[in-house]
């Protein structure tokens, strides 16, 4: 498409799932220009809940189940926001029916599932993005520029902590729903470390606690990288932690509060940048969910240019991170034989 044609391009969305993240996603999408994005249909297993969310957000078509959503020719891209365990199945269904896909993380429960989706998307030449929304916040762009310009010197350590009390949420209690500290919280920490180092670790050692149901409630990991670089991450689902990242370089330290959705970047005492999130029509359920708009904009930018993946969160990186989470969960005893 030419630049002029891009301006008139409207991306037509379908929504798979009716949970709180779907509401936040729709509210964030509502802050963007309507001529660029339009939600045409929503689907879920409980038709009453589907109708309720469709009515609130003025979505014209409601489906019970996901087959009809996949077959709807009016839809260009589907946002998959079902339970973790269903991400692979529903994303695969949409790709098989020619839909672009934005899927909540983790896109697959294992590295094998992740690679399968990536191969399918590439074979069909469809856009696929794991919803690692952190990557699309302006603070990440600014941090990357600072590091690339040598502002931190040589980086030798990254330390990340993420703890929230979520053990009362059903999906986090049950292994067969894909819960656990690694897939819920650990992914965010890993993506930041990979964002900084931009290569795979040479070694990873993890420990943690499992619940009676076999779900990982906590995890502590040490990661080793080439050239003397290291990283540590800690996550807990039973207690609140500082929830920030520290990036240690030879020229200073950057502390990133709410590292998975930051709106403030403090590079030094005098160098502080703050970004204002858009105001949604409805109240958001989760912290800084208005920032989902950055991720939606990235989808529009890529698809309007004919791209099948984002350079900010590549499919190869999603595959790598899924390999690392397999390793972490295997060391904790969540995955048997690493599968």
Structure, explained:
With 339 residues, the chain is α/β, with parallel strands linked by helices. The chain folds into 2 domains: 3-134, NAD(P)-binding Rossmann-like Domain (Rossmann fold, 3-Layer(aba) Sandwich), CATH 3.40.50; 138-274 and 311-338, Dihydrodipicolinate Reductase, domain 2, CATH 3.30.360. 35% of the residues lie in helices and 24% in strands. A 6-stranded parallel sheet has the order 3-2-1-4-5-6, with helices on both faces. Helix 5 packs parallel to helix 6 (111-124). The longest helix is centred in the last third of the chain and has 18 residues, at 315-332. It is globular and about 55 Å long. It starts with a helix and ends in a 7-residue tail after the last helix.
Can I get a quick summary?
With 339 residues, the chain is an alpha/beta fold. The protein has 2 domains: 3-134, 3-Layer(aba) Sandwich (Rossmann fold); 138-274 and 311-338, 2-Layer Sandwich (Dihydrodipicolinate Reductase, domain 2).
